[in-house]
UniProtKB/TrEMBL annotation:
InterPro entries xrefs: Sugar_Epim/Isomerase, Xyl_isomerase-like_sf, Xyl_isomerase-like_TIM-brl
Protein name: D-psicose/D-tagatose/L-ribulose 3-epimerase
SUPFAM superfamilies: Xylose isomerase-like
Keyword presence, Isomerase: yes
Superkingdom classification of source: Bacteria
Native species: Algoriphagus ratkowskyi
Any Pfam family: AP_endonuc_2
UniProt domain Xylose isomerase-like TIM barrel: residue ranges: 23-251
Single GO MF descriptor: isomerase activity
Swiss-Prot/TrEMBL keywords: Isomerase
Length: 283
């Protein structure tokens, strides 16, 4: 049985008690879990939010990114080492949240480009780092699911083929793949074929519209998506990720310059869409 989650980045990238009423309402709608961005919030705030989720019966997943100073595929060995230390800190915060999954494009630096295609040395650096982090996260009970992003946000892994290639090098049971329909809508030739291709390595799934607004309001083919998920018998999380300008600093960092949808429209209509498609395609 799939669990349905919602990423609270639609409200804020900051971890604080201001999120608690949001979490209460997500639980009331029917969500099984909430997903949180792990950035620079105070360490104690993660335990506070994690405890509240546990108290109301809301499960947790998390997402993070690596910046230029923590780029796992940097030519500078000191920066690569810093990436490992940073991801350990993030995994510790995920543990504070009682998170089951840590997703995101942390295989490489977010919006850090080399003005060329990826090279084998970079895949090897990323794989070495992810294998070590797989061990660390496994001890914390957190599954790592690195994510392929579109070409405008990274260059190491844009497609499921590239992500699968990297994960075969990682060769760790606690490091699996993440699929996001927003990025796949840009980079993949076929949603269904790419889902089926990555199926043996798939550990987490984002339901995201082409414009990052309310799922079902754009042109991502969710009938094709849910049919493919049913075909591969995927039983993991289905988490909605949509963005707004509610947190201007975060919005600016990811190039969100307008509101695509109101957050509660995303949450309510998105939940309805997932329930409808699961009922239609899950045997």
């Amino acid at each position: 049985m799939n669990k349905i989650g919602f990423n609270v980045l639609a409200w804020s990238a900051e971890m604080s008690e201001e999120l608690l009423p949001v979490l209460d309402r997500l639980k009331k709608i029917g969500y099984d879990g909430a997903e949180f961005f792990i950035g620079g919030s105070p360490e104690e705030s993660f335990k506070l939010v994690g405890k509240h989720c546990a108290d109301i019966g809301l499960e947790v997943t998390a997402v993070t990114v690596m910046g230029p100073d923590h780029n796992p595929i940097s030519q500078d060995a000191k920066i690569r080492a810093a990436a490992g230390e940073q991801l350990k800190w993030v995994i510790d915060r995920a543990s504070d949240l009682n998170a089951q999954v840590l997703c995101g494009p942390y295989h490489s630096g977010f919006t850090v480009f080399a003005s060329r295609e990826p090279i084998e040395e970079e895949y090897n650096w990323s794989a070495e780092y992810l294998h070590a982090m797989g061990d660390y996260a496994q001890q914390a009970g957190v599954l790592l699911t690195p994510e392929a992003l579109n070409r405008f946000e990274c260059y190491l892994c844009n497609t499921m083929e590239q992500l699968s290639y990297l994960l075969k090098k990682v060769d760790h049971p606690n490091v699996q793949a993440m699929f996001d329909t927003h990025h796949a809508n840009i980079e993949e030739k076929s949603l269904s074929e790419s889902i089926k291709f990555i199926a043996p390595q798939l550990g987490h799934f984002h339901i995201s519209e082409n414009d990052r607004g309310t799922p079902g309001s754009g042109h991502v083919n969710f009938d094709e998506t849910f049919q493919a998920l049913a075909d591969i018998q995927y039983k993991g999380w289905l988490t909605i990720e949509g963005f707004t300008r509610n947190d201007p600093a975060f919005a600016n960092s990811i190039g969100v310059w307008r509101n695509f949808s109101e957050p509660w429209n995303m949450a309510e209509k998105g939940y309805e869409l997932i329930r409808e498609k699961l009922a239609k395609y899950t045997k």
